[in-house]
Every structure is written in structure tokens, then in C-alpha cells.
Amino acid sequence: MRQSYRMIPVYTADVSGVCSALYELGGMTVMHDPSGCNSTYNTHDEIRWYDQDSLIFISGLTEIDAIMGNDRKFIDDIEYAARELHPKFIALAGSPIPFMNGTDFPAIARVIETETGIPAFSVPTNGMNDYVYGAGIALEEIAKRFVREPDRQENRDPSSRTVNLLGVTPLDFGPQKNAETLKENLQKYGWQVMSVWAMGDDLKTLQRSAEADVNLVVSAVGLRVAKILWEKYKIPYVIGTPNDWLAEDISNALERAATRQAEPAVVYLQNRMQQEADITLVGEPVTMGSLAAGIEKRYGRAARVLCPLKECADLLGEKDKMVLGEEAMEEALKSAGIIVADPLYRPICPGDSIFYELPHVAFSGRIYF
């Protein structure tokens, strides 16, 4: 029962993370599911649904097809839609039922790519992981398949400094204006943003990412992409969200990384206050960690982060903690005096705590949007 949730929701699932990450890139994303995953995605997780078109499909998996393993129908439906709509790529995302059936998504993707000539890949989702996992792997596949070798012969201003922002999706950052704010905060310090993975830019822009001087991982979703671009093109990366209070520190870290090929720097964990924290932030580790570092720098009040997401342990500091499950989170918040979190966390917070609302789309969906 420690994994059950009585009062607070769970975070956006990996399947929705795939759809969110690929939404604006001109591909076709297919969820293999009866329809439940699609309804959750379009009614809760996707704030662009009514303003911007995207090719997101549900396979409509039937009981008999699931039992009999009728993958040919799934393949034929995808190929028919692809020939009509001409997507730039096809991404397959699994859900609990095909996961239990052992559906071979990589093989299906190879068949589709062979028969249509359209790049196709699968993301190993099963609805049991959170959005960081699904969105991260989806963008990793884009980096592996579509980023081109840099053209070093281009006429470029040698004084210009270019950076890619990795891990920008509405699930963590909300509407497009927030992504623009991140870019403006870096532009103040002379940085030119070459691409944003993957909100506000198309696939053609992302393909030129290897020409950038350095990468900035602004959320946990972007870490897999940063590692791929380092392995393939030796582009160094820095981790941190350039909010108003931390943008200068991040700019300095980017400069060091770009000029010295320094080791990956987690900016928000540097120069942190060591005393016991009296401010607790709950959420995604990079954005909330950067906010915590900004609070310490601006107000001189120690802060810590409680992270409810998996695969994020390496992004936490000594004072921070990974907390999985409602019961564990309620226990961790018992001693918190000041809490910054999504409003839906309030029911499990101490009644005498001071609570500051900071809505998170990946947790409360469009309720506060």
C-alpha cells in the first residue's frame, strides 16, 4: 500500500512524456493502447492541444487483437496514415497492455521504416514510469537519428556564443512565453540560443544543434540528449535553469565549459548553504534546484529539494532527497516550515506550514493553467 495514492495525483506518465517532447517536430506519434492513455494525455497533460496541430494517434487496440497478437493490423493502420499525412518520422509508444503481451516494438518500427521509407523508432514506455523517462528517451532518439554533423566551414562571427536549451517541454515550463523568458535571460549575457529541445523550434532547427558551442540542460528531460551530443560531437554541457537569480552563474559556467571543455557542471549545486534548510521545494530537480539556489543567493535562506521523480538521483545535492510515493512525501514534509510546491500538494502538508503555490503542469495538468 505504500505505492498507493489517496490524496494527491501521480505525475504525468512516460507515454504522455513522449507525446509532449515530440509534439512540435512534425512527426507522427502513435500510442499503442485501447484509448485510455490518449484521453489522459489530451485532457490533462497537453496545453497546446487546442492551439497547435500535431499528429498524435491511438491504435485502438482491441481485446482480440491483443490476445491474438495481431501486429499486422497495427502496422497497416500506421502505414496508411503515414502515406496520407507524410510525417517526418514515426514514433511508437507502448502502454501497459502491449507491455504485458511482450509486443516487439523495435521490430515493428523496423518493418514500418522498411515499408514506408519514413524513419521510425520506438520508445520503451509502459505507462509505469514518469514523464522524465519517456520524454528523455524520445528526445534522445531525435538526437541519435536527426542531428547532423556540424558545418565548420560556415561563416560565423567568432565572437558569437551559441547554446542549445535541452529539456524544455510544457510539462515543466508551461506556455511558450516561459521558454522565451529562459532565452532572454541568457541573451542578456551575450548567448545566442541556437535551438530549444523541443518547444518553439522545429526538427530542421534541431538538426543543426551540433553547431552550438555548448548545451544547457534546463530540466532532467534534457540530460539524455546532452550525453548523446557529448558522445557524438563532443559538445560540453552545463546543468541548470536560467531563472532571473541564477542566469549570471549559469552564463559563467557555460563560458567555462565552452572554452575549456570542462566537466559537466551542475550549477545549482555549487556554493550552496550548508545549514539545515528552512525552505522546502517539491518537484523536478533541475528547475526546483535552480530556484532553491536562487533563493539562497537572493535572500540568504537555506533551501532543499524533495524530488518525487525517478532517475534523478544524480541531479540532487546533499540536502536534497528523492521521495517516491504519497506516504513517503507526507512523512518528509512533516518538519517543513515553508513549502513551495504545486497546489495539489497542500492536503499532505502540515497545517501550520507556510505554503507557496507553484503549479506544475506535469502534476496538476491544466487545472491552474
From TrEMBL:
Signal peptide positions on this chain: none
SUPFAM superfamilies: Helical backbone' metal receptor
MF (Gene Ontology): oxidoreductase activity
Pfam families: Oxidored_nitro
Domain Nitrogenase/oxidoreductase component, residue spans: 28-242
Name of the protein in question: Nitrogenase/oxidoreductase component 1 domain-containing protein
Source organism of the structure: Roseburia faecis
